[in-house]
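I have been asked to look over a protein record a colleague put together. Alongside the sequence sits a line of tokens, each denoting a local backbone shape. Please read both lines and tell me whether the tokens look consistent with the sequence. Take the sequence as given and treat only the tokens as open to question. I have pasted the whole thing underneath without changing anything:
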Amino acid sequence: MRAIVVLLDGLGDRPSSILNNKTPLEYANTPNLDKLSEKAMTGLMIPYKEGVPLGTEVAHFLLWGYNIEDFPGRGVIEALGEDVEMDHNSIYLRATFGFVKKDEDGLCVIDRRTKDITIDEIEKLVDSIPNFVDGYEFELKYSYDVHFILKIKEENGWISDKISDSDPFYRNRHVMKVFPIKELCNSRIEFDKAKSTAEALNKYLLKCHQILENHDVNIKRKRREKQSANFLLTKWAGKYPESQGLNDSNSTSFHSENKEIPSFKEKWGMKGVVIANSSVFKGLAKLLKMDYIAADSFEEAIKIGIDLKDYDFIHIHTKDIDESSHKKDPMKVVKVIEEIDSYLSPILDLKEDLVVITADHSTPSVGTLIHSGESVPIAIVGSNVRTDDVKRFNERECSKGHLRIFSNDLMNIILNYTDRALLHGLRSGNKIIRYIPDDDDVEHLK
């Protein structure tokens, strides 16, 4: 039995007066989701802790049954997804060209993403930026739009990812000074590394700003009344785990604070594939040794996923709802949900598979939050799954269903309903596992 997870990114939402005090999912016409819920066990799932907003990357890390303490940082995930060469004496961050203006409180962020700038202009600006500050090497790898991966390297390993962001992320804020984060450091040495790293990054960012502010490209842009690309906003520092094999796609695990994180196959006994259209998911798949298939659309992803026969776990992802919700127009979100629903009819015909429909987090289409901390609806359909009386798939109706779970309960539920769950307390092989292993997976006594 295959497990097929259809992940509607950011589907959870809040009610709004525009929709008669309903959420977009409650308001939308979703015949296929409703038909699935009629034969499903439904409920609500808390992505991490009630009220704590999550990003997509860490939400999926938890959803696939891993511990939040072992997450290596989104910077690492994005770097892996963009095929950046990894090493152990570096940290990786997302960096973005933004437009700032100096005022009495510092550098005010006018726009976190400089608008209407060409690749040629970006290349000229990047060529002017320094590569070395205080013994640290800084390397920018272009990604898309005005985004980069920033790799910071220190040859002797005197570097730490336990540092804060310079990107304020929210509107009408100032560039933030980068600090070491004491709570994340498990030793004085680690804190000293973080302090040194933060000081070097602050110097680098200010030096870049001075150069960019006075660059011919930005001077000409000002004359044309266009935004300057005059600051590199940084966030999501991460460090590639030291016991992870470098540039080795067959490497299966890494250690975080001496704790091994297994590949998806090692952890759950299932061969997994992710079907998505995002470097974040490519990076997550690389980290956990899952296969990755790029799909241009959700409709294509559904078709690909249904046809795959060589996988036990198939994760189908769409970002469309999340991206729509970020625009803060609930009625547009309704239309996107209805379009997504129209592509789900092939799922209704699956008889032999376990199907899970859910979200990774809530993305409110009202208010000022980017993501929010509410629970998300979930429906599980399978031949041996207990059902309930819920007839519609939305936040309000699913709250009447059987399930009340956290996201990292989901993989245990999947093992259970695909008849792969090992009886608790049994010990098969040289490590504790949760799935019934194949005979070939354990060493035999001869």
